[in-house]
Amino acid sequence: MLPEGFFLHRDEETIWPASANVLLIRDADGAVLVDVGCGKEGVYLRLKDFLASQGMRIGDVHTVVLTHAHPDHMGAMRYLLEETSPRIFLHPFEIPLAAEPSRLNGTFDMALPLSYGINPFKLERPDILDYFQASGCPMAKADATDVIDPDGELALGKFRLRVVVTPGHANGLVSLFEPGSGMLFAADAVGDVVAWYSPSSGGLTGFLSGLERLSMLDAAFLVPSHGGISASPAREIERTRERLLRREGKIIRELAGGPLPFPELVARIFKNPLIAFFPGPQILQCHLDKLQGEGRVRLRGREDGFLVELTGRT
Fold first, then answer.
1. In what helix (H) or strand (E) does residue 211 lie, and over which residues does it extend?
2. DSSP string covering 100-119, please?
């Protein structure tokens, strides 16, 4: 199904901290990689084995396109950069995050749970890099050499791939569309799982807007970062949208019985206590931002926290 010259290195796991799929494009100069996978040595060794199966070495990689600066997509750069020096393409929003990953604490809104009094682990300052390390998918640093034009194309080998920005999970998350074959590389915008999202990374409204842009493409098949190739792009895009709105419906149902403190609402929506600390509060805030903008909910401050309640508008 992939166009001639494209090859997919797929991770069989799809649940975090699964490594992202890697797209290989062969050209006359060697290899282009779209993403490189997780920052575990074993993941990097499997990437090298994949290249070897195509008769290539890591030194043949002359270009890396990073769909965004998250560890399951670029963590293996720590090993790759020890062996070769490729051109590195990133969206402008992602360049400073890749160069200094501690800035991801801002885009992931790591301080948000503490602002609502949610701190079960008594952390003075939650650090997303510690979370990535403990999850077994550590982050890496990388300095971009080239900027992805958010409204343009990427010339990779003999192909020209259209850039489609799909925020929500990351402000500079890019999907790539190859018009000749109809291939849509959807990165984390669509896949077997719904990627987490946070207010400072585009929120739910950004996520939904990105899905709308993808749905307007004449895509024949979809390649996700997590999961297998699908011959029904429209169905996969709609399924992701439905999952997002299903979560919104659950929030509305929980509030139907009356106002709830933000921490209690988080706990009702996200039963796992780890997720109720991250990324549950961030995801809930995204939904509340959207619902407040629509006039459907409001947050009322009180001395011991915030109450979330319906406004009565449908």
1. helix 203-215
2. SGGGHHHHTTTTHHHHTT--
Contacts of 111 (CB under 8 A, 6+ apart): 105, 125, 126
SS3 content of the chain, % helix, strand, coil (to 5): 35, 20, 45
Q: How far apart are CA 287 and CA 179, in angstroms?
A: 34
Nearest Cα residue to 204 out of 157, 164, 251, 146: 251
Does a cis peptide bond (omega within 30 degrees of 0) precede residue 113?
no
CA distance 161 to 180: 9
Map out the domains of the chain with their CATH numbers. 6-243 (3.60.15.10), 247-310 (1.10.10)
For the sheet with 22-27, list strands across it. 6-9, 22-27, 30-34, 61-65, 87-90, 146-147
Tell which residue, 7, 2, 4, has the closest CA to residue 54: 7
User: How many angstroms separate the CA atoms of 240 and 312, rounded?
Assistant: 27
Nearby residues of 131 by Cβ (< 8 Å), 6 or more positions away: 278
> What does pLDDT average to in each consecutive run of 10 residues of the chain (314 residues)?
94 92 97 97 97 98 98 98 98 98 98 95 95 97 98 96 98 98 98 97 98 98 98 98 98 96 97 96 98 95 81 77
Helix, strand or coil, per DSSP, at residue 95: helix
Tokens of 235: 């169905």
3-state secondary structure of 58: helix
